[in-house]
Amino acid sequence: MTASIIDDARFGPFHRKMFLLTAGGQFLDGYLLSIVGVVVLGMSEDLGISASDEGLIGAAALVGLFAGGLVFGRVTDRIGRQLLFTLHFVVIAAASIASMFVNDPTLLVILRFVIGVALGADYAIGSALLSEWLPRAQRGRVMGMLITAWFVGAATAYVVGYAFVTLIDSGAWRWALGSAAVPAVVFIIAGTGTPESPRWLISRGRVDEAREVLRRVYGEEATTPEAIESLQVDETAHGLGFAEVFRGGYLRRTAFVGLFWLLQIVPLFAIYTFGPTILNAFGMSSTNDSIIGSALISVLFVIGCLPALRLIDTLGRRLLIIWSFALMTIPLAILGLMPTAPVAVVIACFCAYAFFSGGPNILEFIYPTELFPTEVRATAVGIGTAVSRIGAAIGTYLLPIGLDLIGVGATMLIMAAITLLGFAICVALAPETRGRRLADASATSPVGATAESQAMGDRTGVSHDPSAVDR
């Protein structure tokens, strides 16, 4: 089968713009989830809120992420990507501005929930739209780079929050919470005129609209009968609905995506959120030293993504995620077995864990978009997002309790066991999608000459069909 115009297109300015807009959502996710932790003390003093209220304000966005991913993934597959892609930035900007004027903690909880819903929707909307435009040669690397925007957003939140707290004596938290509206408005303006996914349009039978979108992006040569026919073959509707991701071949994929994302995020979010607390538990008594140590660990989370971005197309998706989980387990086990280890060993273990987590981090955005067809792609991403946020909530809630009740050694061993379970899940379920057309990778029945065993990959991660990469 001849590849479609999208699969074989050259990566150009349009694709870079789409990546930057999609990365904007991840930047805001990292920024908005982190900014609250920076200014929570001043907020508590001004509003007189209780510890329980603080917990609700912190958890509200995570609950919203769960709801937004679960609901708007399906909505995105039903009504399209482009409209919601713009609206979710509008909601984030409006809720951020409104947060500057609250005097009631309950209202702030509601606004944080709304922001979380918009962020959860962004995971489904942005990743589906971007993956459906990317050429296959760059799809893995570009999708994987999205996670780096999250860490950049989180780091920026700490810098901005610190600046507001330092420069403004009273009400710094209001300006910090409202500051997210600035990048949101920038992304609204930059995203004006963003085209709808032609894959989605064709899957809904709107061929003329898809033809016009392709003409705008690629020129007249993209609207030939042959080019349109190749996309129509790929995107012929199969009547797939929400329930289909829990049936047949897609059930296996849904289980894999949800489980690996969940088991990765439980220890990762706990370590990222409570880094200084954990380091203090290991005997790093100086607050400044524990903050510096946590900052170093945060940098390694970003650095670990860089070699992973190369390995997804050389080592492959399957082997990368298997080896990553295996290597992530080792430093956590060492920390669990050696709770009185020297500080240098503790820092080295956490840095190793952060570095090796690069593989699963980038595959959060690659696997869900490659394993499901256009009709349910955003739905699948939304489900993965929702499940992962359950893990985030579990990890952040239970970690301080675990440190208090069973100690840091036993807590680290539990984290190691969770990560080891992720390794077992990946060995059993992880497919190989390297180099395949989006239609082939997402098919559970033959597409062209691609069968289920080809789409899922064999247990070694190597395709049995040498022609699969060339279609």
TrEMBL record:
SUPFAM superfamilies: MFS general substrate transporter. Residues 18-434 form the Major facilitator superfamily (MFS) profile domain. It is found in: Cell membrane. The chain crosses the membrane at residues 20-43, 55-76, 83-102, 108-130, 142-165, 171-190, 256-279, 291-312, 319-338, 344-367, 379-399, 405-430. Keywords: Membrane, Transmembrane, Transmembrane helix, Transport. Residues 440-471 are annotated as: Disordered. Its main location: membrane. It is a multi-pass membrane protein. It comes from the Bacteria. Residues 442-453 have a biased composition (Polar residues). InterPro entries: MFS_dom, MFS_sugar_transport-like, MFS_trans_sf, Myo-inositol_Transporter, Sugar_transporter_CS. CDD domains: MFS_SV2_like (cd17316). Gene3D superfamilies: MFS general substrate transporter like domains. Coiled coil: none annotated. Belongs to the major facilitator superfamily. Sugar transporter (TC 2.A.1.1) family. This is MFS transporter. It comes from Saccharopolyspora thermophila.
